[in-house]
Amino acid sequence: MIDPVSVDLAQFLTSWYGPPDASSSRLSGPHAWLPEPLKDWHELSSQWTRPLMTLRRMRAPKEITIEDGKAIFMTDAGDEVWAFDPGSPTDVYEGQLYEEWGKCAESLPEFLTHNALNEAAHNATSRRVCDEVKEELLSEILAPMTEVSFRGWRVPRAGHRVFMGDSLIADVGPALQDHAPWGLKSGYVQIQIGSKEPAAMTYLDKISNLDWLKSGRIE
Question: CA 49 to CA 109: how far, in whole Å?
Fold first, then answer.
């Protein structure tokens, strides 16, 4: 497995999205109270003019305020939210608006790395997704990649894992039944794979019994 600590975010983002095309926006003054890992992320990500996130949204530093003892720093299109505790700023909490918080197993630095890699799988030059993949096909699909040993999230759904290779990233999670009450489908997973090089995905075409939805650049 790949240790999340070994992932250099600046190097990864440059490799995945290309060289920075903007100057870094330094955070100080009224933003000095924010945790260092979060400030580092905002300063780093400000060097790209293209969006680095599509699934979720990082609140701008000026939008982060303390509410009921937690500071929400990230949201998604639904009601999922992520926050840190100002009294213990490396602790991350996840949940839904107006519901109780749950403490994330990951510290803030690991969480931010996890989020960047997860987003990259959905925000890549070339993308493929399959909602129902038999677990027996996983080893062949993930052969060019190695799992990153993230401790995982509960929100929006527990059980997701991230795998990465030289030009590939995969987000693997539980598959859902296609009918109410939308429980987990035993023996199947959902896979989203992103690549910065479309040609790196062609090996997937040789694996039978897969119905990929392709987007972005395709070869």
Answer: 23
pLDDT of 72-88, one tens digit each?
999 998 889 999 999 99
H or E element at residue 109: helix 108-122
Number of structural domains (the chain) is 1
Predicted TM-score of the model (pTM): 0.93
Q: Give the Cα-Cα-Cα angle 147, 79, 193 (nearest 5 degrees).
A: 25
- Domain assignment present for residue 162? The answer is yes
State which residues form the domain around 144.
123-216
Domain membership of residue 183 (yes or no) is yes
Is residue 195 in some structural domain? yes
Q: What is the tens place of the pLDDT at every residue in 185-206?
A: 888 999 999 999 999 999 999 9
H helices of 8-77, where?
9-17, 36-45
